[in-house]
Design a protein that fits this description.
Order of helices and strands: HHHHHHHHHHH
Number of strands: 0
Oligomer: single chain
Helix content: over 70%
Number of domains: 2
Length: 270
């Protein structure tokens, strides 16, 4: 019975998790939690959510809207649990406690989606960035500039997370921001250590007058070496993880082979 509550609000929760600003949960949260959300302590938490959503690439929703939708989902789950439990076991203090727990868990699950989005975006950027570096190395050796390389990558993979961030970088530069400042802004938006190390190397190269083609080539080689080390380490870890299941399979085979023989010897001896 308790499992029915999250199932009933699951469609609304899906819209809230996707950052839908027209979700009914937003109106519910604004109606019942609007006063609480205007307090100073909640405002600081909203600013932290704003930073998380920006890093996660969810710029279409603010921290206030995201928190309000999560609160609305918790309220809907709480009320749904009260109705379902009261119709079965009757209304009482235990029902209130369980319903409050269900509402709090629902709100917490929605808020943790921001951290999940950041992790997913980091994985996407780590997969996509080596291809951009290889493209930069191949094209900049022929005299192409960095902005042209970015434009070529964005046009070839427009729907990727890296293309979105590089487009924002190009927009900042075209609006008059210096390249170094635009790269700093890019570092603050991207939760990938590989991307951050490359942008720092580019900024250092610009200050020292190092050709960008050389910087990109060195960073591509470094990243290729780092990725090969990571693959070797993952392979070694996989060997260790497979030892347990392999031993269990060996034991199972031995039992299947020796079990009937031992049973036959025991019965024969009796």
């Amino acid at each position: 019975m308790l499992l029915l509550a999250p199932r009933l609000v699951a469609p609304l929760m899906a819209r809230a998790s996707a950052g839908s600003l027209d979700s009914p949960l937003l109106r519910v949260g604004q109606l019942l939690c609007g006063g609480i959300n205007r307090s100073d302590s909640v405002q600081s938490y909203m600013r932290a959510l704003d930073a998380k959503l920006r890093v996660a690439g969810r710029r279409g929703i603010t921290g206030e809207a995201f928190l309000t939708q999560a609160e609305g989902a918790g309220i809907v789950a709480l009320l749904t649990t009260i109705v379902l439990c009261a119709s079965v076991v009757g209304f009482g203090p235990g029902v209130l406690v369980v319903s409050a727990m269900m509402g709090a868990i629902t709100t917490w699950l929605l808020l943790t989606r921001a951290d999940n989005w950041i992790a997913e975006r980091r994985r996407d950027l780590d997969r996509q960035f080596p291809y951009f570096l290889d493209l930069a190395v191949m094209t900049m050796d022929s005299g192409t500039g960095m902005l042209e390389v970015i434009a070529a990558y964005v046009s070839s993979a427009p729907d990727t997370a890296l293309a979105q961030e590089l487009s924002a970088l190009t927009t900042d530069i075209n609006m008059g921001t210096t390249v170094e400042a635009a790269l700093l802004a890019l570092e603050s938006r991207i939760p990938s250590q590989d991307v951050t190390s490359v942008t720092r190397a580019i900024r250092q190269g610009l200050r020292m007058g190092t050709p960008l083609a050389q910087v990109f080539r060195e960073q591509a080689e470094t990243m290729r070496f780092r990725r090969s080390q990571h693959a070797e380490r993952s392979a070694e870890e996989l060997k260790v993880r497979l030892q347990g299941p392999a031993m269990m399979l060996v034991m199972a085979v031995l039992i299947l082979i020796l079990g009937p023989a031992l049973v036959g010897m025991t019965e024969g001896g009796v």
